[in-house]
Amino acid sequence: RKEQLQLLATVEAITRDGVSFRLAGNISSVKDLEQVLHYGAEGAGLFRTEFLYMDRSSFPSEEEQFDIYRQVAEKAGRYSVVIRTLDIGGDKQLEYFELPEEDNPFLGYRAIRISLNSKEMFKTQLTAILRASAYGSLKIMLPMISSLEEVRQAKQILAEAKSDLDQRGIAYDDGIPVGVMIEVPAAAAIADLLAKEADFFSIGTNDLVQYVLAVDRMNETIAHMYQPFHPAVLRLLRQAITAGQDAGIPVSVCGELAGDEKAIPIWLYLGVRDLSMSPQSLLRVKHRILNAEASAGREAGANCYRLATGAEVEAELTRFAESCV
Ligand code: PEP
Ligand code: MG
């Protein structure tokens, strides 16, 4: 079965009636990139860079980061890699970087909030990404965005990093796309406004679900309430995706929901064709896409939007999944 799935690595992800998807991988290292490419991923839709910063005693230098980002740019070849800037805080700590003790770390000092407040650290990362962008197709993605100001500030710092590189006479991709993660409900609610400043959206369903349902994604006691198919989640997905589409920018999904084959009708219905997922989901999701009828999937997706509970939506999606085999 595993060997059979591996045969799909080189097959295009296309439904029976000709709707094609682009499946990319979520990675944390150069090695992960090699693995997802082996599974047929068309590049990486999420490179979680925090792992470069962990298990060490100081911040990685520009040179060290450049070396890794250049390797992923080169290894991805004709595909692109979306590099997400540092997303620490929440559950992720760095030994050498003192973060305040917080009652609610997931609602606290995290991700872009830290980057914008530690400008030199952020600029070092952006500079390393920019330098690597001369060696392949890279994109920059900003995590935990909840306001337009944050995007503008990040872009301002990126502009400074670019002009420093100009002065140093170092090449980079001046048109490197800057995208926004939609993972805080506020971002979904103002997606039309963010779309004016963002080159692309990528929806982080892991945090989006946690924040919109007020359900800690790590808390076992309330794990049953963590419902990715809750109508509130579906509505925010539709709002954000439609806003991106109306603005003419690419919209992809990179949270765990992208790797859940049950969710395919939702993507078909909402017009999402770009999914980025963990390595072990790639071939499973492709297998389901190959066996699906997009027209029936779209209908199932539309039905989901008429249902009132997460359980009902899940039942509808299960019904569709079982019709695919
Ligand atoms: C997400 O929140 O959906 C996401 C992809 O980011 P992470 O899982 O790294 O928080
Ligand atoms: Mg997240």
Describe this entry's structure for a reader.
- 46% of the residues lie in helices and 12% in strands.
- By secondary structure, the protein is of the alpha/beta class.
- It has an eight-stranded parallel β-barrel with strand order 1-2-3-4-5-6-7-8, surrounded by five helices.
- Helix 12 links the parallel strand 7 (251-253) and strand 8.
- Helix 12 packs across helix 14 and helix 14 (294-304) runs antiparallel to helix 15 (310-323).
- It is globular and about 60 Å long.
- It starts with a helix and ends with a helix.
- The mean pLDDT is 97.
- The structure holds phosphoenolpyruvate (PEP) and magnesium ion (MG).
- Residues 183, 204, 206-207 line the site of magnesium ion (MG).
- Phosphoenolpyruvate (PEP) binds at residues 46, 48, 87, 183, 204-207, 254-255.
Outline the fold blueprint:
Elements: H1 2-6, E1 22-27, H2 30-38, E2 44-48, H3 50-53, H4 62-76, E3 80-84, H5 112-117, H6 119-132, E4 137-142, H7 148-168, E5 178-182, H8 185-189, H9 191-194, E6 200-203, H10 205-213, H11 231-247, E7 251-253, H12 264-270, E8 274-277, H13 282-291, H14 294-304, H15 310-323
Parallel strand pairs: 1-2, 1-8, 2-3, 3-4, 4-5, 5-6, 6-7, 7-8
**Please, how many helices?**
15
Kindly state the mean pLDDT as a whole number?
97
Helix content: 40-55%
Distance between the termini: 15 Å
Bound molecules: phosphoenolpyruvate, magnesium ion
- Rg (CA only): 19 Å
**Multimeric state:** single chain
Largest sheet: 8 strands, parallel, barrel
Strand content: 5-15%
In what order do the strands lie side by side in the largest sheet?
1-2-3-4-5-6-7-8
Low-confidence stretches: none
Using DSSP, what is the number of strands?
Answer: 8
Order of helices and strands: HEHEHHEHHEHEHHEHHEHEHHH
Protein name: Phosphoenolpyruvate-protein phosphotransferase
Keywords: Cytoplasm, Kinase, Magnesium, Metal-binding, Phosphotransferase system, Sugar transport, Transferase, Transport
Family: Belongs to the PEP-utilizing enzyme family.
Cofactor: Mg(2+)
